[in-house]
């Protein structure tokens, strides 16, 4: 209690109680700025300034020669952006392909890692089991390792003569050549029911220069191996978040519902799940934000191949700039990606505010969570 | 009430039933734990086993963790046939410098934002929060542009300086400083200690847990950092471990898959973080939950 008041007094700001020692105030003003100066300089110079520079470059056709900030560099206005959306051509086709790939990637990764993380958290949170902390660490360990090193391991696991295909072999399944297989999973499913080539209605005329048939390809077999890797590495982190959420569910509530005769599923569905709803929302949005940033794994495992089916906007932006030396287009792609992620972040920040309902200062949000009563 | 009245008659049967169900639950629980324990750890077991195999053996028995015959040929080639020692040196240098920089600069800024009253503090803190939301992957081209413009491209400075401070670290330190009582500092200040002195000799020693957390996070983050090295250097002499590893995989080895070598190199790159994870586990766990708080 005493601590709280002291902290409150110290952070109260201009409106708070004045200290008796007058001279210290101006002293603190200077010291404050000196203390934050290194961070301001570094973040300003290597984060904010470069974003503005890239914004400029995205309006030019700079090819990497010389400085982009001289009069010699052709200014093209919004052309780098319009060619991603409205002009038919390779740039738009590649960009839309990368968007399609990433949408399928998000659609599988986010639900899979959320369900897996919640499942693991429920098991690890079970009071009747021993040795939980060992398993908790084991599940979390992949999250802290280097994305490059782990990608190397998964390249081996998914190699033609690798562990995954050996495992499938035990089950009598002839595994695919994972990283050479550009067939879309949905196309394979259509093929299984006899639709091998696009029906006339889907053969052309889809939005943004891709045919409907292309949009409906699903993630390629190669992408599935990257998806597996990512779900495997991220679930541990989200498991810890769910664990923190589960520990806030009062044991008495669970016991009360048991006495009322609720089955385990009913308890999960009507007690646990509503109680951890804010955490779930948080995990879902954080997962979406992260899934639009997949880069390292693509770089190491597939470089966008086979047949551009593992191309993602993040990797495409890198490749366009640093391999094709079209920095303007590359920067434009990364700003479109930035926009997607910022929108998701704003949604997530709202979710966070909602989760903090029990803090009295955020009373505004309380009304939005009717379950908490 | 109904529960109470029918309890005497049904009790033994129900107790029996419950005991059986508890047993079944436990069995199922352990089975799940073991199954997923294998899913999450076996890839590392395979990695270790295959790093010690010959190439034909790794191709023929990828699932087996036991090398037959056991050989260190892969590791010998890592040290003799690749630039691994150089990458290791670069990674160590970058990691140590970045970690020192982050711990120092982030705690300075965190302290100022938590305790010192200066004009613009609120705005600065809002900026820190905003910066945390900037996704690293959209900064690839921007970072290259600024390093190029400043003449830092392809230099150690380019590898290190942009990483010397991070918004998330500032946030962690600010939160921590706000949680410790202000009275000790006030006493030091009344005794005439300067602001920096108070921070350095009174506050920092109390912030040990947060400093350890930040050290570990910075170490892990900069040791594993890949995209930054991709856009800040091109010279193979400046490659860090992840960069060198990615280069190995993308074909600088020439012919053959050479999986034992690649797995061995990846293993060596993983070991430092693995050791730190085992020793300082609770700090990692705390971080993940802080992550939930700060988003």
Automatic annotation (TrEMBL), chain A:
Its main location: membrane. This is Sugar ABC transporter permease. One of its GO terms (biological process) is transmembrane transport. It is a multi-pass membrane protein. It holds the Pfam family BPD_transp_1. The lineage of its organism: Bacteria, Bacillati, Actinomycetota, Actinomycetes, Micromonosporales. Residues 1-16 have a biased composition (Low complexity). Keywords: Cell membrane, Membrane, Transmembrane, Transmembrane helix, Transport. Residues 1-21 are annotated as: Disordered. It is found in: Cell membrane.
UniProtKB/TrEMBL annotation, chain B:
Keywords: Cell membrane, Membrane, Transmembrane, Transmembrane helix, Transport. It is found in: Cell membrane. Its main location: membrane. The chain crosses the membrane at residues 27-46, 92-112, 124-144, 156-177, 198-219, 263-285. GO terms for biological process: transmembrane transport. Residues 88-280 form the ABC transmembrane type-1 domain. It is a multi-pass membrane protein. Belongs to the binding-protein-dependent transport system permease family. This is ABC transporter permease. It comes from Micromonospora arida.
